[in-house]
Amino acid sequence: MSKILSGYEPKEVLKYFEEISEIPRGSGNEESISNYLVQFAKDRGFKYIQDEYLNVCIYKDGTKGLENKPSVIIQGHMDMVCEKNEGTEHNFINEGIKLEVNGDWISGKGTTLGADNGVAMAMGLAILDSKTIKHPPIELLITSGEEIGLIGATNFDTSVLKSKMLINLDTGEDGVFLSSCAGGIKFDLNVDIEWIELDGEYEEFILVVNGLKGGHSGAEIHLQRGNSNVVLSRALYESGKNVDMYIRDIEGGAKDNAIAREGKSKIFVHKKDINKFKKQLEKSIKDIKNELRVSDSNLNIELVSKKSENKKVYSKETFEKYISSVYLIQKGVATMSLEIDGLVETSNNIGAVKSDDKIIGIRCALRSSVASRKYNVLDEVKLLSKLVGATLKTEGDYPAWEYNPESRLRDVFKNSYYELFNSEVKIDAIHAGLECGILTEKMEDVDIIAFGPEMLDIHTPDEKVSITSLEKTYKLLVEGLKRL
Q1: 296 a catalytic residue
Q2: Per the omega criterion (within 30 degrees of 0), is the bond before 117 cis?
Q3: Cβ distance 160 to 153 under 8 Å?
Q4: Using an 8 Å Cβ cutoff, are 54 and 146 in contact?
Q5: pLDDT 10s digits, 111-145
Q6: How far apart are CA 178 and CA 216, in angstroms?
Q7: CA of 67: how far to CAs of 11, 70, 402, in Å?
Q8: What is the pTM of this model?
Q9: Which one of the listed residues 79, 251, 447, 454 is annotated catalytic?
Q10: Coil, strand or helix: which one is 58?
């Protein structure tokens, strides 16, 4: 891969970011990137730990005069969300990300970039590799499986860490320090499929939804962007009223932590009801596009004719169970914080719908900065599952990171930011799961802050990171470490 980032600053960080981008590292496919980090440590004679979950911690002594100062942890995660545009040919299992630069922005060619959280690895490695940057002892902790439930952080043995200060570099808004984050839980609502064989004259179609912006299901849930699973289900329900219609093979979205952008379903309509069906669908499409005209101006809902010999479809009861689940489940923002202006407190994202021969699976990511609200929504889902006859499975329950009013780490970096850039930093919270919640629960009295460079459209193929903001963030990290 050509080094297209050479010539840009900070050159040390971008050098490592490009190397990292060449290594496939989707969640669950992290062995290569984990071994890359280990090799980095071996080449420089640094002590390191690589555990069975592929988490890596690399240790570097403090520079001259700072050897005996309290150590600090630099922390991020190695995995990335793998999304690509329809029509983009890219195999995330064995292909690295193809980078491109447009003005101040680095992005992937038709795919997610992986700046979430490749920038943390790149900055951490640049610090460790430097012979000139002054810093106290450093423990660089890079975890696995963050995007699929904070797996690495949950299973990491924090007893190998000496520091009581941790800098998390997994955020994407310049000039903002995060001081708390939401907790969450993932769940699957599964509807059993009853199959029937159609008897009569039915025409077959595929209803396709695409062109939605998508985005991070936590950090961007407040933008009220369209969700393809919700849009598709609504179009199916509204167009099928009082129509002899059946469906099969419904699917949409790919990840619970991304707002679903695309979806489709096969539809079978009796010939006597074709005109009524199309008229109702046309009205539904018009209404949905009008409602999403601001958030998703490129939304496309299209009916495509299809012919096949397979006339097996979901029963009416299966369709009703599925539609009832999507309609009645909590979607999007549930509650807003009354303590922090503009902060989403509780939300749920229908991230992925998948069907096979046995079930229609509805995969969701539920988040809240108040644990009791999280479990209250989960109780609502449990009651819903009983009413519609679906089964509920949960996993990946993780805690919130609560605000600490006394933080020396925050004060040092806040002062560093002001003196470097002559402006005040904003102290904020985020409606997304950070590993900070896991680590504060596992490490007694740890002081944590989180910051990072400007990134847009995280978890989508439009993901990009600002070069100038990356340089600014790295300067802040270097200055703060020196002051610590």
Answers
A1: no
A2: yes
A3: no
A4: no
A5: 999 999 999 999 999 999 999 999 999 999 999 99
A6: 17
A7: 27, 9, 31
A8: 0.75
A9: 79
A10: strand
